[in-house]
Design goal:
Structural class: alpha+beta
Order of helices and strands: EHEEEHEHEEEE
Largest sheet: 9 strands, mixed
Strand content: over 45%
Radius of gyration: 14 Å
Distance between the termini: 16 Å
Number of helices: 3
Length: 131
């Protein structure tokens, strides 16, 4: 398996500004202010603490890709995002090891337009891979 480096933990939240203030009270620093992702219809904010990065993700409409997840799971961590030196090789190895893509690689405005793809494993749930 190509080396995968953790980029962030995705945290699903209903109210991004309240969640941001709560994480700041825990000592997190805003790494990037809130960005609107019109592809996924979510607001996203990155915060960092002690070498860890948290991505707050909040749906802005009922047809957002995460609206259903928020209704089912409420405020919760819901994915780990990975970077790889060779994302194509990593994607191939992940799919060979039981992960299935649940979308196609698309630009992520909060990541400077880099492509991301979400994959799911029946054993560990959802991950994100940055291209």
């Amino acid at each position: 398996m190509p080396t995968l480096k953790i980029h962030h933990i995705g945290y699903l939240v209903k109210k991004i500004e309240k969640a941001k203030k709560t994480f700041e009270a825990l000592g997190y620093l805003v790494e990037q202010d809130t960005v609107y992702d019109d592809i996924r219809k979510v607001d996203i904010c990155f915060l960092v603490k002690d070498g860890y990065r948290v991505e707050l993700v909040s749906p802005v409409s009922e047809d957002s890709v995460v609206s259903g997840l928020l209704k089912k799971y409420k405020n919760t961590p819901y994915h780990i995002c990975y970077e790889a030196e060779d994302p194509e090789a990593a994607y191939q190895k992940l799919t060979e090891n039981g992960f299935a893509a649940i979308d196609t690689p698309t630009p992520a405005p909060a990541l400077d337009g880099r492509n991301v793809v979400f994959l799911i494993s029946p054993v560990i749930g959802m991950i994100e891979l940055i291209y």
